């Protein structure tokens, strides 16, 4: 037997390649289960898929469209529990951070609305998780490190508006406050050149958050992100830097 052939066979039979070969069957198996009435079943589906994303990033690239109906079912179901919504959002976050942006572009118009709706949820844990997802979605719809032909502009105002509502609300959970600051920092960093009319209302809120010792560090990180944006001078944030007001 050719020793080179033996080496190739060994390489082809690694656990990762074996798992990759089973992805299509795995997705087909969970598709129906993701719309089961049993919350435990759906939670197990999300956990299984999260493990796949963890050990084999990008493995679900060709199956995003197959998984979205099940995700939306848990996010939009009328009687869905808070835990179920959080698990669904957590899985979306896992997907977004383990796959290339372009695989989501055909599905943004379907995926984004329920996330925006979750940002406005009354339960702070759902809101915090949704803001986490929204921050990643901003990077997905307009990645600044690669050339993308995706038209993100129809989604810009809705993303900005729902984040602004949370950023402006003073009496909310601390985690939500910090997530809102971080998310708005990402929004301005990636989409700010299409929000020029809104920035004069948005950016001063960062200054207010700098005055608060509890939110100061998160705000500094958000402003650092904005200042380092490749969009550069088009963001016109210099007035904040030069505006000298005591904290």
From TrEMBL:
One record GO biological process: SCF complex assembly
InterPro entries xrefs: ARM-like (IPR011989), ARM-type_fold (IPR016024), CAND1/CAND2 (IPR039852)
Organism, scientific name: Rhamnusium bicolor
Statement: the UniProt record of this protein carries the keyword Membrane: no
Keywords, alphabetical: Repeat, Ubl conjugation pathway
Gene3D superfamilies: Leucine-rich Repeat Variant
Domain of life per record: Eukaryota
Transmembrane helix as UniProt keyword: no
Lineage: Eukaryota, Metazoa, Ecdysozoa, Arthropoda, Hexapoda
The protein's name: Cullin-associated NEDD8-dissociated protein 1
